[in-house]
Every structure is written in structure tokens, then in C-alpha cells.
Amino acid sequence: MQDGKLRKLRNGLFYVPRKGAFGDVPPSEDAILEALFGGKPYLKTGPSVWNSLGLGTTAVEAIPLVYNKSKTGVEQVGKKKFEFRRVRFPRKPSKEFFVVDLLQNLDRAGADPGEMKQALGLALLNGRFDGPTLLEMAEKYGRLERPQDVHRPAITTLTLSSKKIRYSSSVERPGRP
User: What is the total count of domains within the chain?
Assistant: First the structure.
């Protein structure tokens, strides 16, 4: 470390900088996350992923959102901040999982719920997303955000042809209003 070949990101986490056109290049976000989680599962999500779904969101990512099995909170690693959430997520997430993820994070994505409902309805009609898989992802990974939400209707229904496709940031529980 004294000869400048090894740099400290934080306690117990070091890197060897690469040389770039404008000086030393820090490690990539993916390299930092791999080092932090040491092979344990994690999933990087957020505006960059949501924007790619083609549902009209164009949010900018200030702090990457990382789902994992061990930590929650915002952490600074070197000059980079990450928001960690300890939540369930699939090992191989489908685009339908990311739709549910987006619906759970509409405020963070800067998306209007009404516009999102319309865009998702059209995307389902056009076959861009699989309705049954979307329902499965909502049931497995959807969640209530706040305790007071328990008494609100948890599912928004889209009527598409003769079928009803349900999606939400939470899953309706039997016996609850």
C-alpha cells in the first residue's frame, strides 16, 4: 500500500488501480459487489434495469439498489454509495420480476402509477411480458411496503380482452380487505 500499488476502499477491502487516460481507474460496481458479497447471491436493480423494460421510465440512477440476503442500508464503499436491501429475489430474475420490482419502486423510478398501468397493459397485450409469469412473480416477490397498507386494496386489476391480469407492489391476502 505504501508504494501506491494497493488502494483501500474500506476496512478489509482493497484494490489495485488500473491506469486510464485521465489517471487511476477505480474498480467497477460489479467488482466491488463481488468482493463485498464473496460469492453470496445479490441482484443489482434500479433505474438502469427498469428503463430497459420499455415501460416509459427514464429515471437516472444516483445510488445503485442491490438486493441481497444479508444487509440493509446505504453504505459508502470508496467513493461509491450503494443502497442494500435484504429481500427475497430469484436466482435468475425474469423481465417479469423486474416489472414487479419497478411497480414496488414507482416513487424511486419517478413513474406515474396511471401511466405505468397503461404502459404495462399495452405491453401485456403486445406480448412483451408473460401474464402468468408476472402473476407468479407478484405472488412470490411482491410485498406490502408499510403496515398501514394492509387495509388498502393491494392489487390493481387490468382488464385485457376477457382475461384479468393482476399486478401490484403487494399481493392480496385472503381474508383481508
Answer: 1
Provide the grid cell at 165. Answer: 391480469
The parts of the chain modelled with pLDDT lower than 50 are: 144-177
Helices and strands per DSSP (H, E), number in the chain: 6, 10
Amino acid at 173: R
Bridge-based pairing state of the strands 163-167 and 80-86:
unpaired
Residues 103-116 have pLDDT tens digits of: 999 888 888 888 99
First and final C-alpha spacing in the chain: 60
Is residue 141 one of the residues assigned to a domain?
yes
Domain-embedded: residue 7: no
pLDDT, tens only, 49-66? 999 999 988 888 889 999
Residue 174, in any domain of the structure: no
C-alpha cell at 38: 464473496
Instruction: Name residue 86's beta-bridge partners.
Output: 68
- Going by C-alpha positions, the residue among 93, 73, 85, 105 that lies closest to residue 170 is 105
Residue 92, domain extent: 28-167
